[in-house]
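Same chain as my last thread, 223 residues:
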Amino acid sequence: MTILETKDLRKVYGSGEAEVRALDGIDLTVNDGEFVAIIGSSGSGKSTLLHMLGGLDRPTSGTVTVDGQDLSALKEEELTIFRRRKIGFVFQSYNLVPVLSVWENIVLPVELDGGNLDKTYIDQIVQTLGLDNKLENLPNTLSGGQQQRVAIARALAAKPAIILADEPTGNLDSRTSQDVMGLLKITSERFSQTIVMITHNEELAQMADRTIRIEDGRIVSRR
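reply #2:
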């Protein structure tokens, strides 16, 4: 089942001689439960693509469909609600709330949406990510790798249709990066979670089910 699809996706900045085609006709399909890595050099358009997939920015033309919903058909408020319910984000900078405990950070998206906590499910996530004994801690008492685990748990908590990870290991050393990637892979498999990850690290990308290379705003290879 297709969970994410883009058709002729384009993003253009500026005009005339100053025109920059950040995305230049991206056709992409991701199936439910897949772990896909999108790789490319700096300036290739991969981060722009992730922002389009997550509804954080609007394309110049083309469509993005997530879980059957065309994002361009949603008004801003509707899009905000859709993102909160259907899309989980994991960023390079963790983006944890410093005054909230690990547990409070994990359940925050669900509580903001007024949803009911599936405590059994969240407990499974916490155990899988090895955060059992850190739930009362504040983020500043954790290592970078532990903070990124909390960010992954938070993204999973609302049972989103898809998780978008933007250079999730960018602030971590190589060993911790391998650990976090391993946990992403495990969570993808254990919770049948669809994950699309942006990275420039070719070695880490090989841990995904499938890799897509983007250069100059275009897909140049798929494997």
